[in-house]
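sorry for the late reply, my laptop died twice this morning and i had to redo everyting from scratch. anyway the thing you sent over, i finally got around to it. pasting the sequence first so we're on the same page, its 77 residues, then the predicted structure underneath. double check i copied it right bc i was rushing
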Amino acid sequence: MPATTLDLRDVPPPERHPKIHDAFEDLESGEALEIVNDHEPKPLFYEFQAEVESFDADNYDVERRGDGEFVATLPKT
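ok and here's the structure:
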C-alpha cells in the first residue's frame, strides 16, 4: 500500500512535478508514492528514471481507471 497518495488533477501543471518530487523525497526506502493524474504520466516516469536514483523503475505501475483518471505507483528503493 502506498505511503502517500497525491491527487494532482486539480493542481496546476507547473506545480505538479515539484510537488511529486517533494513527496517522493519524504518517503522511506521501500515505500511508494501513488499519484492520481488526468493523463498518463509517461514524461514523469522518464524524468524519474533519469534523475532520481532511488526510483524503482522496474516496479513502477500505472493504471487507467477511467476518462481523465490515471493512477501511477512510484516505488522507492
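The helical segments are 13-25, 42-51.
thats about all i looked at so far, will dig more tmrw
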